[in-house]
Amino acid sequence: MKQQNLVKNMVTTAMCIALCVVLPMAFHMIPNAGSVISPMHIPVLICGLVCGWQYGLVCGLVGPLLSSILTGMPPMAILPAMMVELAVYGICTGLMIKLVNTGKLYADLYISLVVAMLAGRVIGGLSRALIFARGEYSIKVWATSYFVTSLPGIIIQLIFIPAIVFALYKAGLVTNSTVKKAA
To answer: Can you tell me whether residue 47 is helix, strand or coil?
Structure first.
């Protein structure tokens, strides 16, 4: 059973990494949709929730890197900070879904998502301000890009990710015991 869960998690992670390449391609056909919708965030957040923090971390690092290599999106200038942000999403959703136990799956999912989304945005912004765009990055730029511009993406994530994870659970595709316990 443990080996079967390992294989399921690896396949799910690979699928989420593939979605990190495909989803942005679909949304980038619309001008500025990538930064507004943040389509790459969705599979990383889902991966962390259903597979655990280790797989979420891998998805958050490999997804944007592979997408950048294959499609040029994200551009190399923002790739490192985006990898940091998405890695934090994957880690935090995986850890939070284990730590939070309200007994209600949707409550656990929302709490895990909100904490991860805030942590990823804060650490992503700090990585840009202190490492990747030192001296060129302000709080105003951070707040605008991470919260104002991406507000439609945040709303989409908060609506669709819990529904997707719940559907995966109901279909018997979720192997994360914490998700099963909360349902």
So the answer is: helix
pTM, entire model: 0.93
The contacts of residue 133 (CB under 8 Å, 6+ apart) are 81
- Predicted confidence at residue 177, as pLDDT, reads 59
Instruction: Using the predicted structure, report yes or no on whether residue 138 has a pLDDT greater than 90.
Output: no
Buried b (16+ CB within 10 A) or exposed e, 82-91: bbbbbbbbbb
**Which tokens sit at 86?**
């998405």
Q: Is the pLDDT of residue 179 over 90?
A: no
The CA–CA distances, whole Å, from 114 to 25, 34, 45, 117, 155 equal 26, 20, 11, 5, 11
